[in-house]
Amino acid sequence: MNMSRTLIAAAVAVASFSAAAGDLSIGATTFLNFPAYKDADVQVYPLPLIKYEGDHFYVDGIEAGTFLFKNENQKVKLGLGWMPQYFDASKSDDAQINRLDDRKSTLAADFSYELEGKFGKVTLGITADLLGESDGYLVHGGYSYTWLINRTAVTPSVGFMWADSKFNDYYYGISAAESRRSGLAAYKADSSISPVLGLNVAHRIDANWTVFGSTYMKFLSSEVKDSPMTEGKSAAWTVGAGVMYHFD
């Protein structure tokens, strides 16, 4: 799933809640992804972070790009970023899963629209695999609202993620060759839609330093749960924490 990428972007935005446009923030974070794959190890992502927003260009966590349109409360963005989802067959404790092919992370293009006001923030976007790993794409949307409590920002969010059949089949399908090699049933995944929930909390220590924590839950579709690669879990989780330094 695109959980880590979405969570990182949301966490960086919340961690920079009091930074002015044009300011530069840098930091570091570690995210833990609890994947849906059967008997799989927790995936750990230690990452540097950069947050910058100018009039024409932006850097947002693990994505950078340009504004096609921008005004006081609307943005249309086109960016490039890392899509961190992957599957390492050797990291599962299941002997049959070990015989499957790996699934790789990829470089992705993201086209998105944001509308932000006193009511909160609404986002809608499409993400496409650029390296031909899955040749798939995702459609994602969400709503979030930030409460400011002194120097603390609390941002719950709700949204959805639609994955096309190519994306799902690459990450959760089992080919005939893999079936013969592993003994697992062949499986072809179709497109799916999944609800997502998130919570980000950031605390401004002083004028320069902010710490943050984030969690993100994706309810798994039947296309994912029915795959022999997974354990039939109802949801997958990503959690993380980090620190940001804001330059004056």
Distinctive features:
50% strand, 13 strands, mainly beta, 4 helices, elongated, 248 residues, Porin
Q: What this model shows, in words?
A:
13% of the residues lie in helices and 50% in strands. The radius of gyration is 19 Å and the shape is elongated. The protein is mainly beta. It contains four helices and 13 strands. It starts with a helix and ends with a strand. A hairpin with a 2-residue loop joins strand 9 (147-149) and strand 10 (152-163). Strands 1-2-3-4-5-6-7-8-10-11-12-13 form a twelve-stranded antiparallel barrel. It has a single domain (3-246), classed as Porin (Beta Barrel), CATH 2.40.160.40. The longest helix is centred in the N-terminal third of the chain and has 13 residues, at 3-15.
